[in-house]
Amino acid sequence: QVQLVESGGGLVQPGGSLRLSCAASGTIFSIYTMGWYRQAPGNERELVARISSSGSIYYIDFVKGRSTISRDSAKNTVLLQMNNLKPDDTAVYYCYRVQGGTYYWGQGTQVTVSS
């Protein structure tokens, strides 16, 4: 089993920044993918960004150039730095980890971008 604990959400004005953090604990495999999905009211959950244990990175087009995902393998942590936030970024952000073919999810953290 893997537990994921997220932090860093909140209310921010348009153009502001937030950094989301997700720490994994439990039975940790060295080969994995971690990242973030988000879900806005009335919308389906969508992948925002992911990073693999090999260092491969993916971003959805909407956040490219505004977000940076990074990892600290020693701490089993993934970070998502989001800059120039827009109201359309408002959503619940869910951390996930895939290892051994199994998906694990965090409880979600609310990000609200509003003036």
Question: Any key phrases for this structure?
Answer:
seven-stranded mixed β-sheet; 115 residues; four-stranded antiparallel β-sheet; 0% helix; mainly beta
Can you walk through the features of this model?
This protein is mostly beta strands. Helix content is 0%, strand content 57%. The chain has strands spanning 2-7, 10-12, 18-26, 33-39, 46-52, 57-59, 67-72, 77-82, 91-99, 102-105, 109-113. A hairpin with a 6-residue loop joins strand 4 (33-39) and strand 5. The model has no long low-confidence stretch (mean pLDDT 95).
* Structural class assignment: mainly beta
- Principal-axes shape call: globular
Structure annotation, total helices? 0
* Overall strand count: 11
Question: What are the secondary-structure elements, in order, as H or E?
Answer: EEEEEEEEEEE
Q: Percent helix among the residues?
A: under 10%
Radius of gyration: 13 Å
> How would a crystallographer describe the biggest sheet?
7 strands, mixed
Strand residue percentage: over 45%
Distance between the termini: 40 Å
Spans of at least 5 consecutive residues with low confidence: none
Query: What value does the average pLDDT take?
Result: 95
